[in-house]
Amino acid sequence: MTQIAAEVRCMRSRPAAFEHTPHGHGDHDHIAAANKAYFDEHADKLEEMHPEWRAMSRKQVDAMRTEWPDLFDKERTTALDFACGIGLVSEPLSQYVKSIVGVDISQVSVDRYNAQAARLGFSPEKMRAVCVELKGEPGELDGAKFDIVICRASYHHFASIDHITRALAALLKPGGSLLVSDIKAEADDRELVPAAHHDTVPHTHGISEERLRATFEGAGLSWVGMKDAAAHLGPEGKEITWFIARGVKPSE
């Protein structure tokens, strides 16, 4: 894999089209900036604020491995952890892949990710993160391509999941897989995200299988499927379901 420069300057993405959210087209930059500011401020306190996140991340990595075991080869598989945060997905994933590159727009999160990777004894070739907002342009990440791209608990934060999915699909090798874990929309379409977080979460009702399948196929990926992976009680005491989903880039 092409060596990725360790010092990548954080950039703001150009506006992308909005979807079925209560926000307008011009709010894309606001959503991205709000998320960056939130995670820059709270990255050092996330595990204290949300002690359940580490176990949830491991549970969803395990669900992906159980559902699609052939994707994980510690001698061969190159992985991209998109919206990697402080590394709660990369840490358990590191046991089952050859290398991981984390990508996030929060420099504070990236710094903590890399510090933790060093504490765990990993070289940058094994596990490292860079701070950059992908635009879906040719040559991003020094032209690197990956066997799997994983994005956990972040799709509901993106103004345009179509835009993001196209950018992630472009980073897959032919035959590579995009794996997404996020909040599943309920049949009654009830709101699942508290109002206090609406500045950083445009998809407040979760994401339906129909919507995600259309997004994957629109990005040129073959739809494999969606499975329930975990559940927890939301702020109003109602159960929230988390899914795992997979799409595959056609082989050349």
Describe it for me?
- The protein has 252 residues and is α/β, with parallel strands linked by helices.
- It has one domain (25-248): Rossmann fold, CATH 3.40.50.
- Helix content is 28%, strand content 23%.
- Strands 3-2-1-4-5-7-6 form a seven-stranded mixed beta sheet.
- The radius of gyration is 17 Å and the shape is globular.
- It starts with 27 loop residues before the first helix and ends with a strand.
Note poorly predicted spans: 1-26, 194-203
Computed Rg: 17 Å
Order of helices and strands: HHHEHEHEEHEHEE
Helix content: 25-40%
Q: What layout of secondary structure does this protein have?
A:
Layout: H1 28-42, H2 46-49, H3 53-67, E1 78-82, H4 90-93, E2 99-104, H5 107-119, E3 127-131, E4 146-152, H6 161-169, E5 172-183, H7 209-218, E6 222-233, E7 239-248
Parallel strand pairs: 1-2, 1-4, 2-3, 4-5
Antiparallel strand pairs: 5-7, 6-7
Helix pairs in contact: 6-7
What is the structure about, briefly put?
Helices cover 28% and strands 23% of the residues. It has 252 residues and is α/β, with parallel strands linked by helices. α6 (161-169) packs across α7.
